[in-house]
Write a structure and sequence with these properties.
Blueprint lengths: L5 E4 L18 E5 L5 H6 L5 E4 L6 H7 L2 E4 L7 H11 L3 H22 L8 E7 L3 E5 L4 H9 L16 E4 L11 E6 L2 H11 L2 H4 L2 H4 L3 E3 L2 H4 L4 H16 L3
Parallel strand pairs: 1-2, 3-4, 5-8, 8-9
Antiparallel strand pairs: 5-6, 6-7
Length: 247
């Protein structure tokens, strides 16, 4: 049991985001997350099926295909717990420990590269998804926890816990809450990008400090809300690009 034979697709229609290595071409698409194709799955004759509680309604059918383990997914804020759970299920705990060491080594290297240039500075993240919904991420979220590991501060509106999923919703009139010394912004679909563009053309957005200082950077939404270790490394890459290597 070395690599996945098949995987469900995200709502964007992709199986794997852009930040994944180029080792996924042979992985069979199995339909959308909410409607996996049991027929395709059966043809793959897997040794193990991994899913979430959202597949509990077809658990008995999945178990007829192969032993099935469902994880209680509660949002990307439990990304570390999820990674360790999967490592345990797959008997890859030694590899997981090494992967965590690599991550924390990179965190320390980035902290050294940043020095004190962002002490007292607010780093904001804002995104658009799901039919023109504006959001951000609280400290306990996936990206919030990474920024916290690195020691980067957040704006006041993004510094308080927001249970249960670490999501912060904003209206257009509250766009000032997205302000900071630096803003990272992201979107998913074409319509989301168009909506985000319309927001950036409005007076309220143009009044933001980061906008006036030309410190707004577009990043990949699936990366910054990815909820896994590969996405975490990709975020570190972005932080090097925009906070270390950009004047």
């Amino acid at each position: 049991m070395n690599s996945p034979e098949g995987s469900i697709e995200s709502e964007t229609g992709r199986i794997f985001p852009e930040y994944t290595p180029n080792k996924t071409e042979e992985i069979e698409p199995l339909g959308l997350s909410g409607e996996p194709s049991l027929e395709k799955m059966s043809l793959l004759t897997p040794d193990l099926i991994l899913g979430s509680q959202w597949h509990s309604n077809v658990y008995s059918l999945l178990s007829e295909i192969a032993p099935t383990v469902l994880f209680d997914w509660q949002g990307t804020q439990i990304w570390r717990k999820y990674f360790d759970f999967m490592a345990q299920v797959l008997n890859r705990e030694n590899e997981a420990e090494e992967a965590w060491r690599d991550y924390y080594d990179r965190v320390e290297e980035l902290k050294t590269a940043l020095g004190d240039r962002y002490v007292g500075k607010a780093i904001s993240f804002v995104y658009v998804c799901c039919n023109n919904s504006i959001g951000s991420q609280a400290p306990e979220s996936f990206v919030g926890s990474i920024l916290e590991d690195i020691g980067l501060q957040r704006p006041p509106s993004q510094s308080e816990a927001s249970p249960p999923y670490g999501e912060i919703q904003l209206s257009e009139e509250e766009v000032s809450k997205a302000d900071g010394d630096v803003i990272f912004m992201a979107s998913y679909s074409k319509s989301d990008r168009e909506y985000l563009k319309s927001i950036t053309e409005k007076p309220l957005w143009k009044q933001l400090h980061a906008v006036q200082q030309n410190r707004v950077y577009v990043v990949d939404a699936e990366t910054w809300r990815g909820g896994n270790l590969l996405a975490a490394h990709a975020i570190i890459d972005d932080l090097y690009q925009y906070l270390v290597n950009t004047p």
